[in-house]
Batch of 2 targets.
Target 1
Amino acid sequence: MANLPIVQFEEKILETVEQHPVVVLIGETGSGKSTQLSQMLHRRGYTKSGIIGVTQPRRVAAVSVARRVAQELDVPLGEEVGYAIRFEDRTSERTRIKYLTDGVMLRESLANPELNEYSVIILDEAHERSLNTDILLGLMKRLVKRPASNLKVLITSATLDGDKVSKFFSNCPVMTVPGKLYPVEILYSKERPKSYLETSLKTALDIHIKEPEGDVLIFMTGQDDIEKLVSKLEEKIRSLEEGSCMDAIILPLHGSLPPEMQVRVFSPPPPNCRRIIVATNIAETSLTVDGVVYVIDSGYVKQRQYNPSTGMYSLDVVQISKVQANQRAGRAGRTRPGKCYRLYPSTVYHDDFLDVTVPEIQRSSLAGTVLYLKSLDLADIDILKFDFLDSPSSESLEDALKQLYLIDAIDENGLITKVGRTMAELPLEPSLSRTLMAANEYGCLSQALTVAAMLSAETTLLPGRSKNTEKKRKHNHVDLPDGSGWGDHIQLLQIFECWHRTNYDIDWCKDNGLQVRGMKFVKDVRKQLSQIMQKIAKGPLDVETSRRWEESQHNYLNLRKALCTGYANQLAERMVYHNGYRTLGFKPQVVQVHPSSVLKPDDDGKLPEYVLYHELIATSRPYLRSVCSVDIKWVTPIIEKVNKLNVIKLSGGINHIEEGTEGINSNLPKKEVVVAGVPDKPDDRIQAARERFLARKGKK
DNA sequence: GAGCACTGC
């Protein structure tokens, strides 16, 4: 602890904090800011008047940093020093230093908007610009402005643009503490490679043959590329002449690897053996691999972004920012001086790369965020004018208002409704929280709770799709229910009910190719949601999972109706001549049901006329993921509501769209997005469908 | 008939 750089600055930091309500502290990796800052303030007596709260964007970080601070202060974890993350509150009345995720802090602020149990709030890792931290930045600005506020706010980050944040907080002081990184030599390519996969392969082999020992970390964009590169590397290394160089083990590292595979990167290599780790940007911040001396940086990252005019997400490979490039390079200098091979010229770095990554708030659907802000009842505030460090586009905010209106969370004047208030209490996206409320009315709450919980975990349910698990899964999947033809939401419900009937047998999950961790997570979420619903209802509700099979043997009418209420903004209509769909409520998009869906066509081969979808995402083409068949009778009133919608009124009477602005997310890395042009009037649509049909026939 | 980076309440 004594040799951490930040310790030398203790007096100066404390002096600055005493004189200013907000201080920005820039500390590079290894400065000790996450563990030392809270202790310094504690020593200076800031814990006498309240708690010191430190937010983290990630759960593991909150836990591990709290554990270390408790150790350094020699107190049991959960007493003076504690942490709070979802499903796990290890704090007590004695807790004075509390580490928590930014999401938990937002929940606390909902219950207690003044956050007055805190004397100091530290927003750590603010440079990552997580959606939650960005909202907290805006809230902190309001809190310190209160006349009698004693609250101290510290914003700490590795590479944040200090001047920008300082300006945001009325020119607060910015302090810089050095880090403890070793120098990293940056080597640029002469030009962009034709195939960054081949170039990575060649560079890695060069390093392995010529350079002294030390592990290699390669940044790729996704699982596919990682698997290809891993097998090519294995092949090449095997063919190297025996004894010509040291041994090597190749390790893939990405989010869909099972945890036991991920932790392999933490065990040191056998002697005289080099590790080559091929990773996604999970290794940029989330996981720190020791022993890395060489970094190979492709310069790309796979990023998810939202288009508010089409309601569509896309997953694009885009250039990284300068901040990300430097973060990647820094991974080579943790244990000794290192080298970073950038597979792009320095002109690309300087001229093409954005300075900072586009913050998440400008890449996401904001319905949940806007609902949250509305429910805080911030005095005299127009949501479209909320003071964000980087404001989302007005189009994105208006899209959020539209969504909220269609699911009754706000009224036609943009004011939050009683329904909306209850929805904000639930840790779910608005479509699902609205579904729960409707389900409660229709008497199918327990089923809806299960669906909501399953959807919250969906991506962690199925194991990674590597070649050999694929066959195994297909084989075992015959035993899993199929949604009785109604679609994926129903299938998810049936799967959980099956598991429930086995008394939550772990082997059943394994036998059916479901990730045990994911299923346990579903159980936890479901329990949490049930408790919140009971609390809101101020009395017992029927939240028990059905045990009897026959209860599920009807057509899930009420559940599908409840889902339709919640997904009023995510409906699609089938095309006349084929099984493609056209989205309703947005600029219409022609989309396909994802092939993995269990939705069944009827005897004529036709899919249902109307479906709701959980997600619309463009990968190789635009796909509806997780769909459920709905009745036209439920859809008609929603379409009427869409047609009557008045965005100007919703935004509080003022039209915020300025003429001539570039529109949505104009600062996003550019990528051509192909949007199918669909005529709006039904007659035209039929005509267009016929033309496409004939065109396709003609081709054959 | 395709397959998705990473977080979080």
Target 2
Amino acid sequence: MDEMQALDALGALSQETRLRIVRLLVTAGPDGMAAGAIGEAMGATSSRLSFHLTHLEHAGLVQSRREGRSIRYSAAYDALSGLIAFLMRDCCQGHPAVCTPAVAALAACACPSPEPPK
Amino acid sequence: MDEMQALDALGALSQETRLRIVRLLVTAGPDGMAAGAIGEAMGATSSRLSFHLTHLEHAGLVQSRREGRSIRYSAAYDALSGLIAFLMRDCCQGHPAVCTPAVAALAACACPSPEPPK
DNA sequence: CTTTCATCTCAACACATCTTGAGACATTAA
DNA sequence: TTAATGTCTCAAGATGTGTTGAGATGAAAG
């Protein structure tokens, strides 16, 4: 991810409705959700929702596919991890004061670590 | 870091000038840089620079202290790591597809890992 | 083909953001 | 005090963003 993509992604995520959409789609899994279901969960009108979904798609953070009458949106996991990696690489140059606590916080969350302790 | 702080931080970073200022200040170290030196590095007028620095300070991403005639700005490392941790926790709930590659990308960068292999 | 359903597109408006230039404020030196 | 330096504040204008409502499009059912 280059700087321009990162700026787009950051801008897309810096809006309450869009951040919540991404959160919803990440937890929804790779199959994603139909636009209607997202709108219901967000309490958004169809045109408002369409505006934000288009914005997120242009920023590369979600992807869409038609399925019958509805359109399913799903999180672009690679773009999200790319953004986080960009922030860490960009911030961490010689300064682990940023990355070390961030990774430590991740270890304390429910996610499996890169090397699961199985 | 809660959602509102994260939105502020994401919005602050989603602007080219401000993202570059943060990058500059992170690499400048804890002592930071005087506003004038930042402006020179960015090629920005004093009022434009002041606008962006104030924006970043309100978002909690930088801090300032007066030093003689000049004002030194420095990166708020804790806020930056807090933002990254927020993104990972928020994105990673049950979905290591985001966090695992991000942490792996970090390991490939010049930064010391949380458990240095010394 | 017509209807229905799901979603998108468009124009309009309000509001926020970024940039600029002029000037104010605070700090130091003469 | 006066002058010089470094930075901030303010108002104005251009541009960008988010919301709404009305209507268009596309897909499936009758």
